[in-house]
Amino acid sequence: MTYGFIRSQNAFTLRLSAEEAQAVGLVVAQVAGLIQAGDRRGVMSLELGPSSLGRSEPLGRDPFDFSGPVPGDVFDDFDAVEQTPDDDPGTDAGADPVLARLFPDGYRNDPDAAAELRSLTESSLREQKIGNAGVILDDLPFEGGEIRLEPERAEAWLLALNDARLMLGTALEIEAETDPVAELDAAAGADPTGARVLGLSLYQFLTGLQASLVDAINPE
After folding, report:
1. Which helix (H) or strand (E) holds 32?
2. In sequence order, what E strands does the chain have?
3. What is the rounded average pLDDT of the residues 94-112?
4. Which run of H or of E encompasses 134?
5. Is residue 35 within 8 Å of residue 102, measured between CB atoms?
6. Dihedral sign (CA 92, 93, 95, 98)
7. 114-123: long-range contacts (C-beta < 8 A, 24 or more apart)?
8. Please, what is the Cα angle at 204 between 103 and 169, to 5 degrees?
9. Rg of the chain's alpha carbons, rounded to an integer?
10. Helix or strand or coil: residue 79?
């Protein structure tokens, strides 16, 4: 991704390499699988494209080098919260840090009101988020190439990219005051080929991708 999204008449275009498209697809599919299952287990088995994305291979010295399959161990931090097989996906968001970020409480100081609102809205929100992720997965050129989005699909991309950033940011413990660039520099200095470097690189890549789409939609 050299320039990000650009506006072309009433559509938005982007060119991604195969590696970039597969990296985006992996993270977005992780979000969809987590939301759909309400559980982190088994999400890596999702079929994303022609490459084997779960195989762990070292990156080059450049932390933004997506020249190989995306290591699955970048998502290892998602195993921190254990859930039982009988957990109800519609009621465990408050106990799971990633789902809590994706489905925040509507009433932070009133647990009963928050639970009631969640019971009324969470199912439709899950369907919407999974649908938005599906739009990206349908549009991604896993062999590399150009993407052209009509305005309604661009909105789905914005929402799904934001969910992907929230998931990664939660796993990487990125807070409002965190400087992701400084975190990436520190991680690269400690272990240039480590999973944290890749996770932070993906987070920065998705941030730039989302920002370019926002700028293309609202150039002013």
Report:
1. helix 18-37
2. 6-8, 11-16, 145-149
3. 70
4. helix 111-139
5. yes
6. positive
7. 118/91, 118/93, 119/90, 122/90, 122/93, 123/90
8. 30
9. 17
10. helix
Residue 212 pLDDT more than 50?
yes
The tokens of 201 are what? 């690189």
What CA–CA distance (Å, rounded) separates 20 from 12? 18
When mean pLDDT is compared across 49-63, 104-118, 134-148, 170-184, the lowest value belongs to 49-63
Closest C-alpha among 152, 43, 176 to residue 101:
176
Report the b/e string of 52-70 with b at 16+ CB within 10 A. Answer: ebbeeeebeeebbebeebb
Q: Which two tokens stand for residue 156?
A: 């789905």
Q: Are 168 and 204 in contact, with CB atoms under 8 Å apart? A: no
Top-confidence range, 17-26, 28-37, 52-61, 119-128: 17-26
Q: Give mean pLDDT, residues 33-47.
A: 55
What is the amino acid identity at position 11?
A
Non-local CB neighbours of 106 within 8 Å, separated by 6+ positions:
113, 114, 117, 118, 121
Percent of the chain with pLDDT over 70: 64
- Is 80 exceeded by the pLDDT of residue 181? yes
pLDDT for position 105: 64
The size of the chain, in residues, is 220
